[in-house]
Write a structure and sequence with these properties.
It contains ten helices and 18 strands. By secondary structure, it is an alpha/beta fold. It has a single domain, classed as 3-Layer(bba) Sandwich (FAD/NAD(P)-binding domain). A hairpin with a 6-residue loop joins strand 17 and strand 18. Helix 1 runs parallel beside helix 6, helix 1 packs parallel to helix 9 and helix 3 crosses helix 9. The structure holds flavin-adenine dinucleotide.
C-alpha cells in the first residue's frame, strides 16, 4: 500500500516550494512537516513574530504518519493508565494524563485561533470490552481513572447499545464500555494543510523535496540537503519521529513500527441505522493489541489496529504487499458483523516512532545542544504533537523545562539492536495477543 492511498492526502491542498538549492540561513530550521514539525514552526513564529523559520520536508507536506492516521484525538500516552501508574506512580501518571487532556482541549483552541477547519468534533471516545477479560480490564482502567479523579463514565450494555451497536462486545460482569468525554475526531489532511498555511501566513518558509542528510555540530548548525545546498540555522528542531534513525538521532531509541488502517465505502442509511453511532465517537477496544475505529464525515468506517509491524533494518517505506491487511479485514468483519456488509475501498499503512517505555521525548540533544528533538508518540501523537510546539518554542527560547513531566528528557531508553530487535518486537506483540486471547 502506498501513502497516497490515505484518504486524508486528498484533502492536502497546499503545494510547497521545492528546496531551491544553494545556502539558506534561518534562525530555526525544523526538520519534518508532520504535525510535530508544523506545530513547532507555528509556535516559534507566534512566540516571536519575525523570527526566520524554515521547515524542511524530505517528501511532500505531511508525508509521514500525520497524513495517514485515524484522526482520533485522544487523551493518554502509549501504555494503558494502570501500567503507567505502576511504573511512574500515581502523581506522575495523573500529571501526564492531565497534560494530555489539556493537549486535546488545546487542539480545539489552536484550530479556532488559527481559523483551521479540520472537521474537529469533540465527540468523546468509547473504550469497549473485547474478549473474555475485556470487562475486567475496563473495570481496572475505570478504577484507575476514578482513583486519580480523571473524567470518565462507565456504560452498561443498554447504555452502550443506545450509543453504538457492534457485533463484538463481550459478555460477562463489569462495564460494557467506558466513555472518555474529552476526546474527538478530525480530518488530519485538513489539519496539516491548515497548519502549513498558518506557518506561511507568518512568514515561515516550507520546502518539499528537502531531505536533510546529516546534522552538523556547533552553531550555526549546518544541514546538508540531498541533491545539493544546505541550510544554516542557529537552532534546529528534529520532528522526524519514525524516520529519525536515518538522521543518526535517537538511534535505537525511537524505532519505526508500521500501523495499518482500512477504509470502507460510505455507509448507507440502513447500515447506519443498525449501528446507531449518532455521536460519531472514536472507539478503541480493551485489548493489549487493540483495534480502533471511527466514522468519517462522509460516513465511512476507518478501522485500524492489529499487531504493529517492525520491518527489517527499520525500513520506513510502504509495504509492497496487500497481504498485511488481511488480518485487519477479519477484525473489521468480526467487530461489525459480516451481515452489515461493509466493503473495504482503501487500505494504507504508516510508520510511527515507538519508544520502549511508550512515552514521548522532547528536549535538547546532549550530543547537539543546538538541536531539540520532539517525537516518539507511540501512536497517540495527534493531541500531544500539536501541543508540543509551544513546549519546543519555550525550550528554544531558553525557558526551563516547561513542566515536571517525564517526557522532557534528552533520550528514550535503548531498544535492543538488530537482529535481536527483529525477533523481540514480534515476540512481544505475539505475547500480548496471547494474553488477550487467554
Ligand atoms: C495508521 C496510523 C494511525 C494513527 N492513528 C492515530 C490516531 O488515531 N490518533 C493519534 O493521536 N495518533 C495516531 N497516529 C500517530 C500520529 O499520526 C502521529 O503521532 C502524529 O501525526 C505526529 O507525527 P510526527 O509529526 O511526529 O511525525 P510524522 O508525521 O511522521 O512526520 C515526520 C516527517 O519528517 C519527514 N522526514 C523524515 N526524515 C527527514 C529528513 N531526513 N529530512 C527532512 N524531512 C524528513 C517525513 O517525510 C515526515 O513527513 C497514527 C499513525 C498511523 C501511521
Amino acid at each position: 500500500m502506498r501513502a497516497s492511498d490515505s484518504i486524508w492526502r486528498d484533502a492536502i491542498d497546499v503545494d510547497l516550494a521545492r528546496h531551491p538549492g544553494g545556502s539558506i540561513d534561518a534562525d530555526v530550521a525544523v526538520i519534518g512537516s508532520g504535525l510535530g514539525g508544523l506545530s513547532a514552526a507555528l509556535h516559534l513564529l507566534l512566540t516571536r513574530p519575525g523570527r526566520s523559520v524554515v521547515v524542511l520536508e524530505a517528501s511532500q507536506l505531511g508525508h509521514g504518519a500525520s497524513s495517514r492516521s485515524a484522526g482520533m484525538l485522544t487523551p493518554g500516552v502509549g501504555q494503558n493508565l494502570p501500567g503507567i501508574i505502576r511504573r511512574a506512580g500515581k502523581a506522575s501518571a495523573k500529571a501526564m494524563y492531565e497534560a494530555t487532556l489539556h493537549a486535546v482541549e488545546y487542539a480545539g483552541e489552536l484550530t479556532r485561533e488559527q481559523d483551521i477547519d479540520c472537521q474537529l468534533r469533540m465527540s468523546g471516545q468509547l473504550a469497549i470490552a473485547h474478549g473474555r477479560s475485556g470487562r475486567h480490564r475496563l473495570a481496572v482502567v475505570a478504577a484507575a481513572l476514578g482513583q486519580l479523579g480523571l473524567p470518565h463514565e462507565t456504560m452498561n450494555d443498554a447504555q452502550l447499545s443506545e450509543t453504538l451497536r457492534l457485533a463484538v462486545v463481550a459478555g460477562g460482569r463489569g462495564p460494557a464500555a467506558l466513555r472518555l468525554p474529552i476526546a474527538g475526531v478530525l480530518n488530519p489532511g485538513l489539519l496539516v494543510s491548515g497548519l502549513a498555511r498558518a506557518v506561511m501566513r507568518r512568514g515561515g518558509r516550507l520546502y518539499s523535496g528537502a531531505r536533510v542528510l546529516a546534522i552538523g555540530r556547533g552553531r550555526p548548525v549546518h544541514l546538508p540537503i540531498a541533491g545539493g545546498g544546505e541550510v544554516r540555522a542557529r537552532d534546529v528542531v528534529v520532528a522526524t519521529s519514525a524516520y529519525s534513525e536515518s538522521l543518526g538521532v535517537q538511534r535505537g531509541r525511537v524505532i519505526p513500527v508500521h500501523l495499518r488502517v482500512l477504509l470502507t465505502a460510505p455507509l448507507d442509511d440502513r447500515q447506519l441505522d443498525r449501528l446507531g453511532w449518532a455521536g460519531r465517537e472514536g472507539v478503541i477496544d480493551s485489548r493489549r493489541i487493540f483495534n480502533y475505529f471511527r466514522l468519517t464525515e462522509d460516513r465511512r468506517v476507518l478501522f485500524g489496529g492489529g499487531v504493529p509491524i517492525y520491518r527489517k533494518g527499520g525500513a520506513t517505506d510502504e509495504h509492497g504487499s496487500r497481504d498485511v491487511f488481511d488480518p485487519l479485514r477479519g477484525e473489521l468483519a468480526a467487530t461489525f458483523g459480516e451481515d452489515l456488509g461493509l466493503r473495504v475501498e482503501r487500505a494504507w499503512s504508516g510508520p510511527i516512532g515507538y519508544v520502549l517505555d511508550t512515552l514521548p521525548v522532547i528536549q535538547r540533544l546532549h550530543t547537539h545542544p543546538s538541536v531539540v528533538f520532539v517525537g516518539g508518540w507511540c501512536g497517540h501523537g495527534i493531541a500531544l504533537s500539536l501541543r508540543s510546539g509551544k513546549w519546543v518554542a519555550d525550550i528554544i527560547d531558553g525557558a526551563a523545562a516547561p513542566a515536571d513531566l517525564p517526557w522532557f528528557r534528552a533520550a528514550a531508553p535503548l531498544v535492543p539492536f538488530e537482529p535481536v530487535r527483529r525477533i523481540a518486537v514480534p515476540a512481544c506483540s505475539w505475547g500480548m495477543s496471547l494474553l488477550d486471547r487467554l
